[in-house]
Structures are given as structure tokens and as C-alpha cells.
Amino acid sequence: MWSTLLTALIGGAAFKLMHAPIPWLLGPMIAVLIGSNLLGRTYRWPVQARNAGMIVVGYAIGLSMTAEALREISYQLPSMMLMIVLLLLFCTGIAYIVSKLSHTDFKTALLGSVPGGLTQVLALAEETKGVNLTIVTVTQVIRLMMIIICVPLLVFNPFFGQSHSEGAAAVSQTLAAAAEWGGLFPNILLFAPVSVACAVFGNKVNFPTAYLLGPALGTAILQLSGLHGPPLPSLLIDAAQFMIGTYVGLLLKPQQLPNKLRTISLALGSGLLLILGAWGFGAVLTKLHPISMSTALLSLAPGGMDQMGIIAHEIQADLSMVAGYQLFRTFFIFFAVPPLLRMMFNYSLKKQKKQEAES
Fold it and tell me: Where are the transmembrane segments (predicted)?
């Protein structure tokens, strides 16, 4: 375990020095991937460490469920539902094309195209039987890198203009400067046990991605009851990403990646299509509501809520709207998508068995 820790720390530090996006998630992931698969080292990483990291990330997501975000969601719920359904249908179409061109099973291609955050989608993929986690991870990482590079180039382009709504001045507490450790107390003494308890209970009742959504829901409920959860110091967020990234890196098996060049090329193509799709749906959203194109694109871009929120703050877009749409998509994907996927896959399995029985 100590060699795993050292390798992951080297990877995270290297990515940090290179100013790479989410360095403490991608750095350890790539470092242990190289060490275990190319250098032949034997690494171990306890699943409990990954679960602890998930609880921290879940708490951070729950902090975003503020009264302001809920008001934004309630005002624009029909538009949010329309946009997320259109985006998911678009992603399903991309996944179908990718599965046919790459000869990958549709289940894996679909999870590789789901527009969720990297951590959440990988957790969902790990819990879904028959999914090639390596393909899902490669596709999602490539998509995330493309979004982090392309979306800022788009929103800072003069073509988008800088006319934002009156809510542009809103600044989210969770996106403020790194919290001081002293600011955690005393409220963290309540929020921390509740987050852990919700994660454990959710796991007991087979809740989807329990160690992520359990703390998110528990934190959101406490906040809506009038309590205020303290924002986490950046060191804690980095540590959580580190624990998750190291665990995921050990799950990756490059030898299980079929037709490497074709798979990576299709991942690049599907990522580009997804960005163009978000841009198109953003244009529709500007017709439905008096918002700027930058706000619309950041609201619908299939990246993490934290990255999109930071960009929104930088260009003074409507932060509450961006957070509301991103939050709604996150929760919709993890409450509605797992049951829909199970229904879809069960139907496909029954159809396949029926065809085999008739032949």
C-alpha cells in the first residue's frame, strides 16, 4: 500500500506542477495505471479509502443544494427537464453509433457518453455488471479534457457576447476561496456523522452510488432545514480526489481496450459531438429564457458542476442558473438513469434470449 501511496503522490504532484485540470484525480489515476500495467508493479488500495473520498465529494455536492439553487430549479423545471431529456437522447444516439463503429457493447458505450461528472459516472459504471470500465474511463476522461479546453474558448469568444442577466453578480459560497479549517466547526460535527451515516445506510439498502448520493442528500436536507454546512478546505477536496483517482487507476486494464486507436478516435469524435450538441441546446435555451449564450452553454455543458461554476464566475455569468441546471442534471442522472438503464438492459437481454430460443 505504501508503494501505491508514493506512486499516486508523485502522479498528483506532477499533474499539479503541469497545471493540469483536476490534478489530484487524474494524476494518481495515470501514475498507478503506468506503474501497475507498464512497469509490472503490484499495487493495492483499500476500497474504504475510495468510499471515504466519495463521501467527501458527496458532501460537497450536497452543499450546492441551497435555497437559491432550489428556487432556480423550481422556476425553470420544465425547461430543465426538456433540456436534460434532449441531451440524454442525443447521448444515446451517439452511444449507439459508437457501439456499432467500435463493436463495443451498447451498455459500455452508453455509460461512456452519459453527461455526468467523471467521479459519478465511474462509480455508476463500476456498479453496473458487464461494463468495460477501462473504455468508460478513457471516453469520459477524453470528453472531460475536451470540455475543459473547448468550453472556455467558446464562452470567452466575442461571438457569445457578454450580456448577462441580473443574477450575474451571484457568488456561490461553495465556489469562494478555499475555506479555513477553523470555519468547519462546530457545524461539521453534525454534518460529518450525518454524511457517513447516510452513505452506510444507502449502501445497506442498495442505493445507487450510495457513498456519493447518500451524503449529498443528507447534507442537502440539513441545509434546507436551516442549518449551514461549512465549505471544505481545498486540501480535503484534493485528498478525496486522490483517494478516488488511485482506486480507479488500479481498475484500468489497457489490455482490455479493444482496437485502441479506433476507440480513442471515436471517444474524441463523440466528445466533440457532445459539445456541439450542448451548444445547440444552449441556443434553444436562450430563446426560452432571457439569458446569455455563455450562461446557457455553461448550464448545459456536460462537465463537472465545479468546473462550469468556476468559469461562470470568471465571466460573470448567471451563477445560480448554471449551478441549478448542473445540479439538476447530476441528480436526474443518478436517480433516473440507473433504473432506466436496468430496464433497457433487461429488455435487451430478454429480446436476445427470445431470439436465441427461436433460432
Answer: 24-40, 52-71, 77-98, 141-161, 181-202, 209-226, 232-252, 264-285, 327-345
Could you give the CA distance from residue 283 to residue 281 in angstroms, rounded to a whole number?
5
C-beta separation of 329 from 315 below 8 A: no
Residue located via cell numbers 479509502 = 49
d(CA 305, CA 323): 7
**HSE of 339 in the Cβ direction (CA atoms, 13 Å)?**
5
What's the pLDDT at 304? 63
List CB contacts of 126: < 8 A, sequence separation 6 or more: 133, 251
- For the segment 286-305, what is each residue's pLDDT rounded down to a tens digit? 998 888 888 888 888 876 66
CA angle 198, 203, 206 (to 5 degrees): 125
The gap between the terminal CA atoms of the chain, to the nearest Å, is 51
Please give the single-letter amino acid code of residue 203: N
Domain ranges of the chain: 45-358
CA distances from 303 to 58, 98, 111, 347, 359 (A): 16, 20, 15, 30, 44
